[in-house]
Amino acid sequence: MLTELFHSSNPVSLPGSRVKVLFGPGSLDRLGELCKSIGGKRILLVTDPGIEAAGYPERAIHSIYQADLVVKLFDEAEENPTTETVNKALRAARPFDADLIVGLGGGSSMDTAKGANFLLTNGGAMADYHGTSKATKPMLPMIAIPTTAGTGSEAQSYALISDPQTHVKMACGDPKALPRLAILDPSLTATQPPNVAAATGIDAIAHAVETAGCTKRNDISRNFSKQAWQLLESSYERAITNPHDDQARAKMLLGAHLAGCAIENSMLGAAHATANPLTSEFNITHGLAVGLMLPHVIRFNSNNGTNPYSDLLPNAAALAQRISELLGFASIPKSLTEHGIAQEKLPRLADLAAKQWTAQFNPRPLSERDLLGIYQTAYT
């Protein structure tokens, strides 16, 4: 099926995923015809100002106009979108009467687009959708176009939206929020700054690893996890070293998508549970936070003699070491002290991590004391 993806000029369905995929350089320029093919006439385009300099929103709008469709641009998506970001998108979108939504950018743009979809179609506030399947009315079809090889949000039915008051990152999911189509255009990732490529790539790798070991894994997710790991681990260093290595970037983008498919079919674990408080409390970029914590979580999950990650590598210690090597290659901090976090903050982090949804799917049961121990191993 991956071979078909590389060679097909039409969207392809992957076994185990309800998101059709169009893969290949230049595929962004077919956005207009694809919007029309699924019935779109009035298109809400959600993106962020960071990629406008690269000209991608302009290309998307041109393609939509070429298909004789109408488009409204919202270009104020922010990193780690909050309820305020989504409400801003809602205010811009409501008078437009869109019948299709396009999310163009990193995971934040796609999550903002999903959040706006919930509120446009079902009303209320984002907190009403915290959890699973709480939308009672149909939602608009969505096309997702990632410009980073990272979150795999284009393969998932969840939006991660933070509450600015409580700092809780709400996972708001519904099968109706799943994008209808993902456009994977590797040429869009060529303009990523090296630090962004490094952080998002590690995030994708963490998705492959955590889904491979979580308690909700199954035959479908395990297949996605394994394929994602093989693509990502073999391409990460090349993609970081040379952003003009088209093959490496294509494999990273596809690997990130497959890791997203694995999440959609399973769940994550303690690396994400411990990373999220680092982002909410200390504003550490998510990819850096989850990368920092991942080797320590792998060691914790395997120090009882088991290897929940055997689909990826037969030796868990070797897996943790390989992750550490990739972090070092990309100059990503490997300790909490490198981020200036004081040791007395660790109990607070452990308390927050224990409340994270993904913690319950970790392959080894976790207590708050266990989480504190993981933070302590990551401290220096």
Fold topology:
Blueprint: H1 2-7, E1 12-13, E2 20-23, H2 31-37, E3 42-46, H3 56-66, E4 70-74, H4 83-93, E5 100-105, H5 107-122, E6 131-132, E7 142-146, E8 158-162, E9 169-173, E10 181-184, H6 194-213, H7 219-241, H8 246-265, H9 270-282, H10 286-302, H11 316-329, H12 346-354, H13 368-377
Parallel strand pairs: 2-10, 3-4, 3-5, 5-7, 6-9, 7-10
Antiparallel strand pairs: 1-2, 8-9
Helix pairs in contact: 2-3, 4-5, 6-7, 6-8, 6-10, 7-8, 9-10, 9-12, 10-11, 12-13
Describe this structure in words.
The protein is an alpha/beta fold and 380 residues long. The protein folds into 2 domains: 2-188, Rossmann fold, CATH 3.40.50.1970; 192-377, Up-down Bundle (Dehydroquinate synthase-like, alpha domain), CATH 1.20.1090.10. The chain has helices at 2-7, 31-37, 56-66, 83-93, 107-122, 194-213, 219-241, 246-265, 270-282, 286-302, 316-329, 346-354, 368-377; strands spanning 12-13, 20-23, 42-46, 70-74, 100-105, 131-132, 142-146, 158-162, 169-173, 181-184. The strands form 2 sheets. The chain has a 7-stranded mixed sheet, with helices on both faces. Strands 6-9-8 form a 3-stranded mixed sheet. The N and C termini lie far apart (44 Å).
Oligomer: single chain
Strand order of the largest sheet: 1-2-10-7-5-3-4
For the secondary structure, the number of strands is 10
Number of domains: 2
Q: Which percent range fits the helix content?
A: 40-55%
Briefly characterize the structure.
The protein is α/β, with parallel strands linked by helices and 380 residues long.
